[in-house]
Structures are given as C-alpha cells and as structure tokens.
Automatic annotation (TrEMBL):
Keyword Transmembrane: yes
Lineage top rank: taxon: Bacteria
Species this protein is from: Algoriphagus antarcticus
Protein name: DoxX-like protein
Transmembrane segments: 7-30, 50-70, 77-97, 103-120, 141-160, 166-185
Keywords, ordered alphabetically: Membrane, Transmembrane, Transmembrane helix
Length: 202
C-alpha cells in the first residue's frame, strides 16, 4: 500500500511535466510540430501585435524548463513551486484575451500541482518559521553534483532541439529523445556515486 501514493505522485509529476514541457516546445518548434495536448501553440504570434512576442517566448521557455523538471521527476519540488507563478501568468494572459475554457483547464492543472506540493509539506516549515534552526524533514534520495550536471545536459539538448527543428524535424525529435534518456540516467549516476562512497567508508 505504501507504493501507491508514490506511484500516484510520480504519475502526477510526469503528467504535469509533459503537459507544460510539451506546450512550451510546441510554441517554439518549427511550425509548432511538437507533441502536446494543450495550447495554443500560436501564443507568441497572438501576443506579437500587442508588442508582447518576447513575453510569449519567455512563457514558452518557462514551460519547457519547469515542465522538464517534472517530466523527468528529478526536481518535483522545485518544479511544482515554480509552476504556481507560471500558471498564474498564463491564467492572466488567457483572461486578458478572453479565452473561454482555458482557465478551467489551468485550474485543474493547478489542483494537481497543489497535490504534488502537499507531498513535500515538510519542506515548507523552514520557509515560514525562520526562527527555528531544526525541523523534521523526511529523508529522501540523495542527489549528486554529477547527477545534476547530467540532467542539465539533457535540458540543454531539449533547447538545442528547438534550433534543430528549423533544419530537420526528425533529427530534432531524436535530440529530444536523447536528452530525455540522458536526464533519466542522472538517477543512475547518483546511485553509482553514492554506492562508491558507501564502499569507501570503512
């Protein structure tokens, strides 16, 4: 029974991550040829007449980075915290442009994000109560510097795939897949390094 909440947490993280990562990639990929289920992929073009094209690109890049944190499940806490202001920004754009229906979708996604954050509620006490120096924070899997670097390399490949999409769509998709695999390997790097440390401890 203890594995069910963890599996649900993982599923919510991957779903939210794919939703926003895919939405951001679709906005910036050549001719918007990327997989995703929410839009609009033409947000940047929609905002350009108002002089907000750069803001649209910023939203797309935010969606990619924050969504990638969650879809790879390495930075669920950081990604879910950053998702709240991101969803708020997108919500204000949709309300300002009078897009009906989109706010309800965003409200559902925000609810999922709150569920994700609730699993990490033990981290929020130090942020709120600054007067105490020690808090009861649950121990979780240790991440290593090399693991972080491997994950960042995967994120870098996602961003480079955007440029590659203007040259060859198939190559761009292969770069995306390579980046996902590389970021997934960051967990293996962590385990390998931590096991090596355990072996060295007398």
């Amino acid at each position: 029974m203890k594995r069910i909440p963890e599996l649900m947490l993982m599923g919510i993280s991957i779903f939210l991550g794919f939703t926003f990562w895919g939405a951001g990639m679709a906005k910036l990929f050549h001719e918007h040829q990327f997989f995703g289920w929410i839009g609009p992929v033409w947000l940047i073009e929609e905002l350009e007449p108002y002089g907000l094209g750069l803001y649209g690109k910023f939203i797309a890049l935010s969606q990619i980075c924050i969504g990638y944190m969650l879809v790879t499940t390495r930075y669920k806490l950081l990604g879910s915290i950053m998702m709240i202001p991101m969803i708020g920004n997108i919500l204000m754009v949709t309300i300002s442009l009078d897009w009906r229906g989109t706010p309800f979708v965003l409200a559902f996604l925000l609810l999922l994000d709150v569920i994700l954050l609730w699993q990490y509620r033990d981290f929020f006490r130090p942020l709120i109560d600054e007067g105490k120096s020690r808090f009861d924070i649950k121990s979780r899997f240790i991440r290593t510097r090399n693991g972080h670097l491997v994950w960042l390399a995967g994120l870098g490949l996602q961003l480079s795939a955007i440029q590659a999409s203007y040259w060859n769509w198939m190559v761009a998709c292969l770069i995306v897949l390579l980046g996902l695999v590389l970021s997934g390997l960051s967990f293996r790097v962590d385990r390998k390094l931590m096991s090596d440390v355990d072996l060295k401890i007398p």
